[in-house]
Amino acid sequence: MNVYAVVLAAVSSFLLGGLWYSPALFGRAWNRENGGEVPQGHPAKVFGISFLFSLVAAFAFAWFLGPAPELRKALLCGAVVGLGMVAASFGINYQFAQRSGKLWAIDGGYHTAQFVLFGLILGLWH
Predict the structure, then answer these.
(1) Do the domain assignments include residue 3?
(2) Fewer CB near the terminus (10 Å): N or C of the chain?
(3) Which tens digits make up the pLDDT trace of 47-70?
(4) Is 62:10 a contact under the CB 8 Å cutoff?
(5) Please, are residues 117 and 78 in contact by the beta-carbon 8 Å criterion?
(6) Per-residue pLDDT tens over the stretch 85-106
(7) Residue 100 to residue 95: CA distance in whole angstroms
């Protein structure tokens, strides 16, 4: 496993999330769909724990792919994991929580893009 690629994947996920949930993309819609309230918490704690989760996800995905995945397979696996596992699992929770389909699309879309990005990095950098 290329540890540097895994760390880069985690960093890229973190940066993607910053853009994805910013007002430039889906931040306003996400906020509306969550009832208009921005969750509270100490920024260092929120960002630090979020980065650790990104790192765990990148390591798990790299382990899942194996040491030298071909790019096409890594991208396809990223789409399957992001949409077919993570977003689908969110969909179950969101139905029981009575959350909107728009919120599911924003959050599920982010995680699908996240794992495809993981696949891109891990498929290119062995």
Answers:
(1) no
(2) C
(3) 899 999 999 999 999 999 999 999
(4) no
(5) yes
(6) 999 999 999 999 999 999 999 9
(7) 8
Residue 97 burial (10 A CB sphere; 0-12, 13-18, 19+): exposed
User: pLDDT band at 35, cuts 50/70/90?
Assistant: confident
7 located within any domain: no
Q: 102: how many CB neighbours lie within 10 A of its CB?
A: 13
CA 40 vs CA 8, 44, 99: distances in Å: 28, 12, 19
Domain holding 35, by residue range, is 12-124
- The three state secondary structure string of 54-92 is HHHHHHHHHHHHCCCCCHHHHHHHHHHHHHHHHHHHHHH
Amino acid at 104: W
DSSP letter at 36?
Answer: T
Q: Is 49 a member of any domain? A: yes
In a domain, 1, yes or no: no
Question: Count of domains in the chain?
Answer: 1
